[in-house]
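Lay summary. Proteins are chains of building blocks that fold into shapes, and those shapes determine what they do. In this project we predict the shape from the chain. Here is one chain we studied, written as its sequence of building blocks.
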Amino acid sequence: MKHRILVAISIVFFSILSLTYLPHLIAQVGQGSADQEPERQLKSILKGWKLIEAVIPSNEDQAIALMSKFNQIEHLRTEFRTRDRSNFNLIQQLATEEGKVDEKKDVLNKYLGSREKYVQKRDLLYRELLDLLNLDQQIRFMIFDRTFRKELRNTVNTLSKLKEMESSKKEK
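And here is the predicted shape, written in a compact code that computers can read:
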């Protein structure tokens, strides 16, 4: 019964979300604008909805705890990617310069240390998240975590193609 209620709430939420944000996302696909915040927000909402749909929490408290922990993991991932990109750019810059051995060692150690810290924090958060779930939910979460990004990319690509088709129809 609770599962049906959660699914119904998810469907209603997604329907409202689709009607509100999907046209905006379609308009942004292919623009390549620097301001990707609405698209990120939509992706975050879609992740949450798909996560709840995939894991099927046993109650509302478990769903809230799951979303909270998952958001922590996503935030950590975003922060890491930003730092990692910055550190890597510095490494690329130093690679073209002669000498500066101490600076190169320092930057390389910082880069590798940052990656190690990220992996440790990420693994700890994953363990904490999995502790919230029963065995079947853990398995469903791992499948979701592995496949969601690919599915999202496919969806965005499909939306982009639909937009292109719509544009070509208007031109004819």
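What the prediction tells us: The two ends are 51 Å apart (CA to CA).
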